[in-house]
């Protein structure tokens, strides 16, 4: 299943990957000793680890040196299948995915979930940049378990886990936008494993529907049935976010926020689509909770690489954390971009 079609060549995308890697590595601003403890196993929410209090607070000079800007943009990557021999433009090989994690790591990016972005729950060490890794369509290569119940190291989740073991300040987390048919990940236990290991399980409609073609009842059935199924499959789970298939919104956008299916209400905090730009900061006036842009990845597309290159070329555009999840710190000349709802937490410098 593809979210949409844009034809690009594999060769140019490969060149883009290499270019992005070189640019970002060259711009890597590895600074300090960050220590992001991960959410302990057993938690069914992907909330950020409460490590901020242990970190020193940067002074104004340090903020400027680090380029702290919590009104800057945050790239949200959209992945599809990981396959050894990519054939479709949105496919990516496991090796290329591992390479992309390294590129992100070297450039100072650290993953947060889609729900954490939407809620502005961003808890990273000072100087680090959030990135959101999302996976659509719940294909088996994204997360699968071995017979002994451990995660397959060749799956996307397995690659993330291995990367965290090698880079303990890179928390293995991602958001999986799951369709309920066909059976996601070929094994329902996978959903529980993901929830228990700090990943976000989110909705992608029951049958990968084009919501623009459905009436109000149809839209609510596609979303409500998916949410109800997931919350039943994973005890304790609350589905907080949705990615609309094909990037298409329903005519009645209110149904993204809340609706009812078979007498059971659903309520979502945020909705993700597809675009060619990084997401605005959740504290920015430009941020729209129900239309958060995501960037295509894959060997046939270069939206993600382009966005990373733009942010590397002009780091003042990029979200750079102050190390304190409560304060919202940014250069004073950006103050007009702040959503006034967050004024009481603002710290211009
Ligand atoms: Zn999809």
Automatic annotation (TrEMBL):
PROSITE patterns: PROKAR_LIPOPROTEIN
Cited Pfam families: Polysacc_deac_1
UniProt region (Disordered), positions on chain: 32-57
Span of the signal peptide: 1-28
Regions of compositional bias (Low complexity) in chain numbering: 38-57
Major location (coarse): secreted
Domain NodB homology: residue ranges: 127-252
Highest taxon listed in the record's lineage: Bacteria
Keywords: Signal
InterPro entries on file: Glyco_hydro/deAcase_b/a-brl (IPR011330), NODB_dom (IPR002509), Polysacch_Deacetylase (IPR051398)
Subcellular location: Secreted
Protein name: Polysaccharide deacetylase family protein
Organism: Sporichthya brevicatena
